[in-house]
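help with this:

***
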Amino acid sequence: MIPDKRIIVPLLLLAIGEVLIFNGLVVHGMAIYIFNLFIIYILIIRGGDDSDVALMQRLLLLPLFRIMIIAMPLSFSSTRLHWYLLVGCAMLPAIYIVTKTGRLGYGEPGVNRVVLKYIPAAIVLGSLLGIAERRILNPVPLLSEAGIAHVLIFVLIMLFIASVEEIIFRSLIQTAFEEFYGMHYALLVTAVLYGIMHSGYGNGSEIAFGIFSGLILGYVFQKTRSLPLVVLIHSFEGVFLFSYLFS
């Protein structure tokens, strides 16, 4: 199946927005993303083949999510954790609407599939990704002090944010591209999208790592069709990346 050529415009605008953000032109990148959001709105309203409209609806989540992330405070502090939580909460209604209008059951997004035997491997894989990403970013820990309460809150928030990102990129975007391009191309396209949306760090190595991480997460999702499993990997990556305990 060949997707509507109109999809090229939103993807191109997304790339332009990320190039601007990568070069420090955050306001200009935000403007491109807002423009892109309205372009996708228009394409959805104009309609077309049902599968094309469904793909556009899922792509709509990318600029929406990116605009909300860009609007967050830039400093890495414990305060930013609350903003992550707010962004996740705000994205849930949009995700729900897309899944309902697309008539997705729990099977396609992989929500109801938990592969228990792979959980230890997922924890190890996520930890290794987090350690590797720490070497690239060397971030200041979001939690300034060690404490059980702080760590539990941090893990819960990271799980929540990881869930939102994995639903968008793996459960919705990747599965939509699979219908058009097949498994291999869908994996590559989604991983590239996932990687370039890490341009806010202004670090080319982080974009490359984002693509690499996206390939791993996408591959695991394709093989297991388990959203909880990739969320677990993503969550442990975040814990090892930003937690005070692993600094």
